[in-house]
Design a protein that fits this description.
Layout (H helix, E strand, L loop, with lengths): L6 E3 L12 E7 L7 E5 L2 E2 L6 E6 L2 E6 L10 E5 L2 E4 L1
Antiparallel strand pairs: 1-2, 2-6, 3-4, 3-7, 5-6, 7-8
Length: 86
């Protein structure tokens, strides 16, 4: 069983204007097959035309495309027992 990954680089708060993209990045202690999940408030996010979720090694990136006022709120990233929010 693989050891749990931890979050070594936490999310940073991002301010963006309506119509811009907002980019959130998080880095883990190791590459993992554990489920990593992004949330806007309590809503789990999936990769689609509005959100792009990328994983490059230990770096996890969320891009919210052309944000609106409705996208305002807390973004969180969870892996295992660890959470980071911005």
């Amino acid at each position: 069983k693989e050891p749990a990954a931890t979050i070594v680089e936490k999310l940073k708060d991002v301010t963006s204007y309506e119509g811009e993209d907002a980019v959130f990045e998080c880095r883990l202690s190791r590459e993992t097959t554990q489920d990593a999940q992004w949330f806007l408030g309590d809503v789990p996010l999936q990769s689609n035309e509005m959100n792009e979720i990328r994983v490059q090694g230990t770096r996890h990136t969320l891009i919210l495309r052309k944000v609106t006022l409705e996208d305002c709120g807390s973004i969180s990233f969870k892996v295992g027992q660890h959470t980071s929010a911005a």
